[in-house]
Every structure is written in structure tokens, then in C-alpha cells.
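For practice. Any example?
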Amino acid sequence: MDRFARYFIPAILICASLTFLITGDILRAITILIVACPCALVLGTPTAVVAAIGKAARQGILIKGGAHLEEMGKLKILLLDKTGTVTKGKPRVVGTHSIDGVEEKEVLYWAAIAEKRSEHPIARAIVEKAEGEGLRIPHPESFQSFRGKGVKVQWDSRTVIVGSPVILRDEGVAIPDLIRALLNSREDEGATPLLVAVDGRILGLLSVADTLRESAKAAIDETRKEGISEIWMLTGDSEQVARRIGKELEIAYEAGLLPEDKVRKVKEWKKRGEVVAMVGDGVNDAPALAAADVGIAMGAVGTDVAIETADIALMTDDLQKIPTLIRLSRKALRVIRENIAFAILFNTLFVILSAQGWITMIIGAVAHQASSLFVILNSMRLLKKT
């Protein structure tokens, strides 16, 4: 708008001055200045954006700025996290396996201690399972979270590690062949296995499973109908787990990704020059949400970090809000284009009419106000129920 004003204002002043010099009619020159005032043009974008953001809020979608609305209207690639996004985010512990004579309850106990201070949905599921079995879980003395890998804590002078094989390898913990076989078995069943180690010794593993959201498949199909053909699921889970969910949803996937890998993938897609949106809910997703053109957080189960980082937050965990958001954003862009086109045509036409002396100053003033009113009313169409 500043660049437009740099050329528009001098052009109108020159036009009004030339009209006065040629005709000697000061009223014509003043009328030109009245009708050329770009109020309708200035109102065209913000009124449409405010109306669209208001409509989105009514539908449980919080858009944090007009720029994000405009980006969604140009969306080409949609990336989805798995846990808490396409799945319900309420995983359950579906199995506990111990080795070397350790009781299964002890494996669960140590895992719950390690996960006590974590915000991850899987951590909450483990703690709830342990407490449901009557175990009293103390708070660990120290807590370290390794995004996409697991956690490490100190309690009662003992070091407890819970997570994927990656974190155990990083910490120098050997993984027995029996555990490797169990890992493959649980992953083939579609569960996420978590290893539990205390003082460098693996005690066993927990199997955690989540269920798909009922709305996930319908939402993805609707999104495709909106012309978003590239839809990917990015997950830190294993290839087997990702393949099962990808097959059910009929979408492509990338498995075994750490948070930094997700960021790298987002940047790779952005390099193609297309608008990329990332949908996630957890702490692990925050960097990818920030890296995307539009970050969308699942508000109801999302962590505070994800919601704070995201550009848009869904206040309910209904994925069908995504195609709704896309449609609303595109409609807002259409209305903005209509407003701008009308304002330019109006200004051009009435400047010509004023220069010819075919309209009076009063008619020009009324027409100017009418043009602003038209733009506002056109933007208000976005508030209508659809």
C-alpha cells in the first residue's frame, strides 16, 4: 500500500491540477480529489481479513493474523504429525514385557518415574497406567527430554532412560537380541515400543498404541477435493507403524524422523516455492510448525509450546476444520480481489467523470462514501453461514 501511495497520490494531484489549469474550474479539481480518495481501496483488505478471522473464530479456528489467512488461501502442501493429529493423542499402554526375571510391574514403575515430568501424550499414558495399577510414582530429581528420542532422569541415585533404541545407543546401553526381536514384533502389530533401562541395563519394554481419529480419513479426502494433492504424514515412529496408518489414510509418509528432521523436510518442500502448512500438537512439533509457512496446532490436546508457536490453532481436535479453513481462506482472497478491483475501477471511472464535469462535488462525495460502504458489505459476506 505504501508503494501504491507513492505513485497514486502524485498522479491524482497532477490530474486535479491539470484539470484546473485546462478548465479553470476549481470545483472540478476538488471533485477529483474527493472521488479519488482511496478509502475503498484501503478498506478492501482489512475488512475482508477481519470478517474471515471472525468467521473462523465462530467455527473454533483461531487465526493469529491476516498474513496467515492469506497464506492458507495459497496452500499447496499439507504436512501432518501422527500422534495427537491424525490419531486421537490418547495412547494406551497395551503391553508390558520384561526380561532377565524382572517383574512387569517394575518395568512399568521405572518407566512412569522417567515420564512423570513429561508433557508428551505417551508419557501421560504411562503414568496413568502405573497409577491405575496402584503404583505410587515419585517425582524424579532431574529430568532431560530428548526430542523424538525419549527421556533420561535421575532418581534415588539411579539413572533411568525410557525411549527409542536411538536414545539407548546414544547413552551407550547395549540392546540384547531378545529385545530387538520384541521391537520388531511390536512394530509389526502397529504399536510403538519404548525401551526401559536403569543404570545401563535394559529391564524390558512397553508397547503403546493410539487410535485414528474418526474424522481423519474424511478430512483428508475433503482436503484433496480442495485441490491439495500433496498430503504427507511426518512421524518419529517406525516404518511399520507409519506404513499401517499411511495405508489406512491413503497418504504418503516419512517415518523415523527426529524434530530436526521434520524441520529439514519442511524446508525442502518450501524450496519448491509452494506454500507449506504443518499440523501438529506436541513439543516435538514446535520447530516444524515454526519452519512452515503456516503452522497449525491442535488446540484441545496440544501442548502450550505448540499452540504458542503455531500461526493458527484449532480449538477442537476435529481435522475437518482443515478443509473448512482452506475454503474460508480462499473465499477471503476472492473477496479481497473483488474489493480491490472495484475500488480501482470506481476511482478511475469517477476521476474521468469529474474531469469532464459530468458529476457535481456533492454527487462525488456521496459516490465516494457509497464505494466504501460497498466494500464493507462485500467483506461482510464472509460472515454468512455456509
In short: The two ends are 31 Å apart (CA to CA). The domain at 62-86+213-315 is CATH 3.40.50.1000 (Rossmann fold). The chain has three domains: 1-46+329-383, 62-86+213-315, 90-211. Residues 141 and 155 are 5 Å apart (CA to CA).
